[in-house]
Amino acid sequence: MSSQLGIFQKRACELKAKTLKRFSLQQFKNKFTAEIRFLTVGAGVFVFDAGVFYLLLSLTPLTLMSARVLAFAAAIVLSWYVNRHWTFKGRKHRAKAKQFSMSLVVASIAAIMNLSVFYVVNHLLKEQLVNQPILASLGFALGVLAGLIVNWLGANYWTFSNKHAI
Predict the structure, then answer these.
(1) 91 φ, ψ to 5°?
(2) Which one, of 41, 34, 32, lies nearest residue 77 by Cα?
(3) SS (H, E, C) the chain
(4) What is the pTM of this model?
(5) pLDDT tens digits for 32-77?
C-alpha cells in the first residue's frame, strides 16, 4: 500500500512540475494583458501627475492642495485617453462622451479617496513637513495607491466593461 502511495505522490509531483513549466511568461501576459497595461498606464500617469504637481509647486504661487488638484485633473484626462485607446482597446466602446463621463465619475470617486489620503497623511505630518518637503511625497504616493485601487475596479468593471457597452 505504501509503495502505491509513493508512486502516486511521485506522479503528482511530476505533473505539478510539468504544469509549472508550461505556464510561461507569455501565458501570464496573455491572461493579464489588461491588468499589465492598466498598471503601465498608471505608472506613466503617475510620473506625469507627479511632474505636473512638482512643477506647479515650484513655478507657481499655488497652495499644496491647489497644485495637487490641478495635476490630478490633467492626469484624469490622460488616463482616460490612453486606457480607451490602448489598455481596453479590444473591448467594445461606448460613445466617447458617455464613456468619458463614466470615467469622470470613477475618477471623482478615486480622487476623493486619493486626495483624502493625501490630506490626512500631510495633516498628520504637518510639523515634519516644515523642514522636509520630501515627506509630501509619502502622502502623494499613498493617495495614488488608494486611487489606483478604486480606478481599476471602476475602469475594468464599469467604464470599459463589455457587459454594458452600447
Answers:
(1) -95, 160
(2) 41
(3) CHHHHHHHHHHHHHHHHHHHHHCCHHHHHHHCHHHHHHHHHHHHHHHHHHHHHHHHHHHCCCCHHHHHHHHHHHHHHHHHHHHHHHHCCCCCCCCHHHHHHHHHHHHHHHHHHHHHHHHHHHHHCHHHHCCCHHHHHHHHHHHHHHHHHHHHHHHHHHHCCHHHCC
(4) 0.64
(5) 888 889 999 989 998 999 999 999 999 999 999 899 889 988 988 8
Instruction: State how far the Cα of 120 lies from the Cα of 31, in Å rounded to an integer.
Output: 37
Condensed to tens digits (0 to 9), the pLDDT of residues 119-140 reads 888 888 776 665 666 766 888 8
CA 69 remoteness from chain centre: 18
Contact yes or no for 160/143 (Cβ under 8 A): no
Cβ neighbours for 67, distance < 8 A, ≥ 6 positions apart = 53, 56, 57, 60
What cell numbers appear for 10 in the block? 511521485
- Report the alpha-carbon distance of residue 85 to residue 100 in Å, rounded: 12
